[in-house]
């Protein structure tokens, strides 16, 4: 009976269409509070943040006051929210109707204090910066203001202290992708085209993405492929397997990028840093494959391969070996000595062949055969001399072919040495570039994450 009598007493002559003050010059002060319950979704493409908040309002209604002694010492009562005056406080960043459960009642104290508590699912526009994805931190604002009443009619204030609001995670569900860092609050006045000022209360919801999933699924596979590309340089450049290995890596990385393309956030204002990282890694793989093709083409054995130019020998086989700390120079000097010996031997053989019409290597053999050879005038026609001369010519041709082939092998060996030194040089340059790129990228991510 006391509740019914009090409800009838308060609402019998109440007019909810008028701001509840006895003097119209009195300002209605509305204290608001906010607690973040969950981060539901972050739509980077449409720049929309969806959160679930607990929102509280508190104001004084001068027409909802009573003496508790007259109503069985009742100091608080709940009344329908549709039956009393409620301030028109909205969120400026709203982009969709708030999907919140309907709370039909408000609490009213005997001094006229009205408490309106309700949960709201808020879909708000937010400027999302995904350049540091997946180590990004987002700062989205929720601006509460009266849409119609200026600051002389309705003023806003904070229900609790800013420090209590900032680090309040008592109701936050932190098992999703995003972690709540803090909630900042600030009060300010604004005016539109020099008209009356309006009061607004801003809450800055600062959230951070948990990067573990993206690190495991995006960064680590890419790093493993780059490490395998570096290890591939230890394959011999003349084996022919390095090109197929590099092509396989490039193909695998392309398939990897196709798989992760749906995971990366898509926006029209820019590309995340991790996208640039993937593009640069792909470019490094292409450069590595190009270098491998160049080295394989250089060391490939060809019969018509020219001699290594002297300036190339001096630059790569002498100076570059010192620069690259390749101290095993014996094989280079031995190869050059063997090549010069073979060339001198070929010249001697050519001069001997000119002096020896029958192609003997030793002049004593020529004398022995010459002493045993009968004079044409005394012995008459003989079939042995033309046969022996033909056999000797064939043997001489075979010997010259083998010597020429050995010379070609020496030329190919020299080019192999040049290719080996050039491969070491390009590999170290490539390794320095990869390390510098990795250190720079890691430093940028660390600095931005700490900031």
TrEMBL record:
InterPro entries per UniProt:
5HT3_rcpt, 5HT3_rcpt_A, LGIC_TM_5-HT3, Neur_chan_lig-bd, Neur_chan_lig-bd_sf, Neur_channel, Neuro-gated_channel_TM_sf, Neuro_actylchol_rec
Q: Where is the Neurotransmitter-gated ion-channel transmembrane domain?
A: 218-440
GO-annotated cellular components: postsynaptic membrane
Q: Give the principal location in a single coarse category.
A: membrane
Tell me where in or outside the cell this protein is found: Postsynaptic cell membrane
Subunit record text = Forms homopentameric as well as heteropentameric serotonin-activated cation-selective channel complexes with HTR3B or HTR3C or HTR3D or HTR3E. The homomeric complex is functional but exhibits low conductance with modified voltage dependence, and decreased agonist and antagonist affinity. Heteropentameric complexes display properties which resemble that of neuronal serotonin-activated channels in vivo. Interacts with RIC3.
Q: Which family does it belong to?
A: Belongs to the ligand-gated ion channel (TC 1.A.9) family. 5-hydroxytryptamine receptor (TC 1.A.9.2) subfamily. HTR3A sub-subfamily.
Protein name (database record):
5-hydroxytryptamine receptor 3A
């Amino acid at each position: 009976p006391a509740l019914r009598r009090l409800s009838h007493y308060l609402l019998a002559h109440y007019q909810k269409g008028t701001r509840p003050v006895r003097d119209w010059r009195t300002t209605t002060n509305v204290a608001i509070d906010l607690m973040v319950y969950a981060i539901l979704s972050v739509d980077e493409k449409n720049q929309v943040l969806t959160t679930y908040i607990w929102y509280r309002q508190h104001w004084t209604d001068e027409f909802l006051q009573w003496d508790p002694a007259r109503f069985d010492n009742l100091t608080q009562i709940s009344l329908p929210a549709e039956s009393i005056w409620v301030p028109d406080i909205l969120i400026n960043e709203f982009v969709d109707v708030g999907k919140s459960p309907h709370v039909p009642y408000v609490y009213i104290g005997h001094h006229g204090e009205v408490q309106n508590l309700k949960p709201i699912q808020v879909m708000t526009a937010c400027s999302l910066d995904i350049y540091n994805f997946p180590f990004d931190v987002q700062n989205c604002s929720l601006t509460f203001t009266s849409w119609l009443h200026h600051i002389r009619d309705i003023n806003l204030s904070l229900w609790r202290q800013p420090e209590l609001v900032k680090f309040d995670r008592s109701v936050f569900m932190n098992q999703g992708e995003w972690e709540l860092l803090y909630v900042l609050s600030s009060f300010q006045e604004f005016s539109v085209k020099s008209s009356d000022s309006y009061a607004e209360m801003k809450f800055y919801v600062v959230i951070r993405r948990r990067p573990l999933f993206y690190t495991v699924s995006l960064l680590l596979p890419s790093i493993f492929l780059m490490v395998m590309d570096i290890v591939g340089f230890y394959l011999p450049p003349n084996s022919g397997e390095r090109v197929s290995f590099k092509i396989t890596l490039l193909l695998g990385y392309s398939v990897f990028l196709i798989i992760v393309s749906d995971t990366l956030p898509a926006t029209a204002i820019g590309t995340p840093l991790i996208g640039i990282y993937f593009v640069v890694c792909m470019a490094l793989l292409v450069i590595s494959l190009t270098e491998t093709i160049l080295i394989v083409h250089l060391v490939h054995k060809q019969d018509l391969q020219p001699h290594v130019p002297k300036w190339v020998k001096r630059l790569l086989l002498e100076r570059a070996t010192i620069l690259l700390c390749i101290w095993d120079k014996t094989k280079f000097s031995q190869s050059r000595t063997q090549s010069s010996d073979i060339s001198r031997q070929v010249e001697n053989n050519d001069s001997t062949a000119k002096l020896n019409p029958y192609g003997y290597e030793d002049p004593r053999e020529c004398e022995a055969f010459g002493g045993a050879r009968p004079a044409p005038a005394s012995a008459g026609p003989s079939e042995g001399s033309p046969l022996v001369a033909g056999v000797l010519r064939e043997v001489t041709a075979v010997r010259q072919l083998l010597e020429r082939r050995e010379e070609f092998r020496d030329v190919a060996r020299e080019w192999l040495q040049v290719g080996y030194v050039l491969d070491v040089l390009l590999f170290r340059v490539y390794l320095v570039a990869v390390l510098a790129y990795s250190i720079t990228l890691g430093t940028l991510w660390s600095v931005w994450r700490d900031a």
